[in-house]
Amino acid sequence: MKRDISAQYRLEGFGYHIVEKLVGSLPDNTLPQVARFFAFLAFTVLRIRRRVSLENLNIAFPEKSLSWKKQIAYYSYLHFSLVILEFMKMNSWNANQLERHVYRASVGNVMDALRHGEGAIVVSGHFGNWEIGIGHYFFLGVASTVIQQRQKNPLINDKMKALREKWGMEIVYPRGAVRNCAKALKRGRLVAILGDQDAGDKGVFVPFFGRLSSTHIGAAVLQIKTGVRIFLGRVVRINTGKFDIDMIEIPNPERHKLKQHNVRSLTAELMSVLEREIRKKPAQYFWMHRRWKTPPPQEK
């Protein structure tokens, strides 16, 4: 069916295409310099979500000095500027080129689950570079299913979808995601979910850096319904162009018991392990998101 694309969307889509081609033509070792420019522009000049980032760091690290928080916030902007550039650069890489960026990968437990045809769930957050992690699984011959937020601009949405499909990802959108991911698990696929953003009134409130935060329950519901093994995946940058991948299994003795307390408990454990990993590398977390946007019921 023909889509009615506005002039603004076409202009944005053209701009994205040009930037992606430009980034693809750059040598890998020049990306950090480009990222530094964008980080300086966003953090120091335009101050995009700078106040939100510092407020979040105040919540997460109340004991730290203001200068430390400003430093971590700036390096978070730098890190995610580089993540965006690496995402675009992935369009010009093949699997072997991407694999050169993997310093260490501890994924044997996930591969063991997949070898038995069970499927597996990997939950991560906006932390490190999750796209590199999925690319590594493609290198290993693993088919994956990921949930992608639908972008407002359909042309940019199509670009992002096509890039991820290049790396063996089957794309599903949030509406009906649990049902579609359950079908993928039955086919023995790896299902990857980013589950750390504010879920509004649809989420369950669990602790995150000492404060209750509304959190998506899709990963917990999916695991309890299917009984497959679930992991917290983290892909952290250890230097400019190398990554350390680790998959931490989250035990759930009450699988197949879809009760409210079980969903809450598993979600809380996932966020607890994610928080522990973020504390090790705080500059690689996406502090720009309003993680505690929705107040718990007793605060409303």
Describe this structure in words.
By secondary structure, the protein is α/β, with parallel strands linked by helices. It has a single domain, classed as Glycerol-3-phosphate (1)-acyltransferase. The protein is built from 11 helices and 9 strands. Strands 1-9-8-2-5-3-4 form a 7-stranded mixed beta sheet, sandwiched between helices. Strand 3, helix 8 (154-166) and strand 4 form a beta-alpha-beta unit. The mean pLDDT is 94.
- State the shape: globular
Structural class: alpha/beta
Share of residues in helices = 40-55%
Oligomer: single chain
Instruction: State Rg.
Output: 19 Å
How do the strands of the widest beta sheet line up side by side? 1-9-8-2-5-3-4
- Helices, by number, come to 11
In CATH's first tier, which class applies? Alpha Beta
For the biggest sheet, the summary is: 7 strands, mixed
CATH architecture assignment name: 3-Layer(aba) Sandwich
Short account of what is shown:
This protein is of the alpha/beta class and 300 residues long. The protein contains eleven helices and nine strands. The strands form two sheets. Strands 1-9-8-2-5-3-4 form a seven-stranded mixed sheet, sandwiched between helices.
